[in-house]
Specification:
Elements lengths: L1 H25 L11 E13 L9 E13 L8 E25 L2 E27 L4 E22 L2 E25 L4 E18 L2 E17 L1
Antiparallel strand pairs: 1-2, 1-8, 2-3, 3-4, 4-5, 5-6, 6-7, 7-8
Length: about 230
């Protein structure tokens, strides 16, 4: 029931984005010549949750999000309509104090701090479709949706002192994704732009390890910088 509810929410969000694009189309400015490809880079904070995770710290966790992407307006009749490809990267790392361990070395026994760690790496390649509406001489509002997949890699083990000595768990899985997004674009010149953006991603179920996995939900907020040829 929970999975079905999430899928309904994802579908409702996609329909909402599509409706917003339709509204913008209805009130769009007159068509201009299609622009050259745009290269962009996003960076910011993300937080995700894996709803079936019952062990460790990854049931809900924050981390760094990076996304290089390229997009273009391929139709002269509707230059506000953009199509592109993005590559999203997320990395989060957690450690937990597990006490101390006795180490036998050349100088005799000594104690070292013992920690356990968990790492999760997410890679999301996706096709992005959006509508960028010009609101003033320098500001545009862009709404769209990305669809693709997620590759998740999970690793866990122990750290003794500052050295990883037991990397016993390394698992990965993939699932389909959908990610509505919105961007506020500030155009200082024809070649360089930037702004703020936010998004929310849903994925199918990930099976990473006993007690670690489930449907992924991930929100992101950050800044981006663009260059047009």
């Amino acid at each position: 029931m929970q999975i079905a509810a999430r899928h309904r929410r994802a579908a409702a969000m996609v329909m909402g984005v599509a409706g917003g694009i339709a509204v913008l189309l209805a009130g769009a400015a007159p068509a201009r010549a299609a622009v050259a490809p745009e290269f962009a880079f996003s960076i910011g904070y993300t937080e995700y949750r894996l709803d079936d995770t019952t062990v460790g710290e990854l049931a809900r966790q924050g981390g760094l999000y990076l996304e290089p992407r390229v997009s273009a307006a391929p139709w002269d009749a509707h230059p506000q309509l953009r199509v592109g490809v993005g590559l999203g990267f997320t990395l989060s790392m957690t450690t937990e104090d597990a006490g101390e361990s006795i180490v036998i070395g050349p100088g005799g026994p000594s104690t070292e701090d013992l920690d356990t760690y968990e790492n999760l790496f997410l890679f999301v390649p996706e096709l992005q479709i959006s509508w960028r509406q010009e609101w003033s001489d320098h500001y545009n509002l862009e709404v769209g949706v990305g669809a693709g997949g997620v590759y998740a890699h999970y690793s866990a083990g122990d750290v003794l002192g500052n050295t990883i000595y037991d990397d016993e768990i390394r698992e990965s899985d993939t699932a389909l994704t959908v990610r509505p997004f919105v961007r506020l674009v500030y155009a200082k010149s024809d070649r360089f732009t930037g702004g703020f953006e936010g998004s929310y991603l849903w994925s199918g179920s990930l099976d990473l390890f006993d007690g670690v996995g489930g449907n992924l939900e991930q929100w992101y907020a950050g800044v981006f910088f663009c260059w047009t040829r």
